[in-house]
Amino acid sequence: MQVAIIGGTRGLGNWIANFLKERGCDVIITGRNSLMGMEISEKIGVSYTSNNIEAASGADIVILAVPIDVTPKIIMEVAPHLKEGSLLMDVTSVKEEPSRAMEEFIPDGVEFIPTHPMFGPRIKSLEGQVVVLTPLDKGKWYEKVNKFLESENARVIETTPQIHDQMMSIVQGLTHFAYISIAVTLERFQVDVKMSRKFASPVYSLMLDMIARIVSQNPYMYYSIQTQNHYVAEVHKQFSSTIDELNDILTHNNEERFVEVMSSAAKYLDDLEASLGRSDKAISVLTEEIRILKSSLGEEVGLRHIYSGRIHVGILEEITPNFVIINSHNMLVKLKISNIEILNPKELKLYKNENYPRKIFDVSVILPKDSNPEVISSTIRTLNDVADVYVEDVYQGSQIESGMKSITFRYHVIDVEARTTVEKLLKGFGGIVR
Q: 68 and 92 in contact (C-beta within 8 Å)?
């Protein structure tokens, strides 16, 4: 299947190109910067052209990943050239205007599904991510797209373009506006943000992280989110009015009214207990990770960089408020705590089994004749740094005393010191190593 991604050189379009390429699609991307486009296409193994019509005309699926304000224009540009039986999708945060443009300009025999992936290009998979579909009509492609998203464990929501934009005026328009306002206020007051974290609870740090996540994104895209959705202006108006009201209440020391307003807002939220539980989990994840790291000082750890996916294994040498330092193969590696995940013992063992060279040893042990070699093999296999175990031989000849048998195990280890652990385990089974 050939997929054309208009605007696939950066951002979400680039993420989609990588994602679909990994799933076997024949992907072609477009972008205004030809040099960048050729470099990126070569890097991820897809085709590139600077001509949107050329890319769209031969594709089975065309995905528009361009800025919100130019999406209708690009629809008008490529629509007449879409081949019969193909599908057009967009991935913008506003749905009413793209839907109208698709309905007006797409020729007969071509389907379209206005789409809004509720995530950015930093995610690692679609699992658990929300994708909103706003079809005006459902043809053969709709069921295929729905099944594909569900097979990737995405959460699919179907609605109308109007309801989508109304909800986004709150989900994005209000929250982004509030977060950006807080960030600008911190800047205007010249607040020492790093120092402020030292004085605050984890809730404040988590809030700062979410604000930073928003303001570090493409400001042009966030401007479009605020201006291209025509429901947002009314939301801004109400938000500003509410700020003025609360400020007036505090200026006049009206405690009773403040309590009334805040309590009423709390009752309006859907489920306070669930909200407290989810926020408690988020906070506990942050603190638990630090606790695990501190308890692992001087021990071997595996750390996965959440963006590059690279895994670092070594002895944890030092922890600072923001960084960890590990000794990996006699080289010190400094990693930012916010950018790593800690591998659990099973994940660490699997990584070492797949990436570290193995050493092979044989050991013969005298055990009671009713000993089960397979049970013992399974137990040895659970040991750290033991990659695999096989039963090579079972012997009950004249050289072995009555009631006993000799079992020879061949085992693969990553660290030769694991030999001591294996032999200690065999002795624990009542065995005598020959």
A: yes
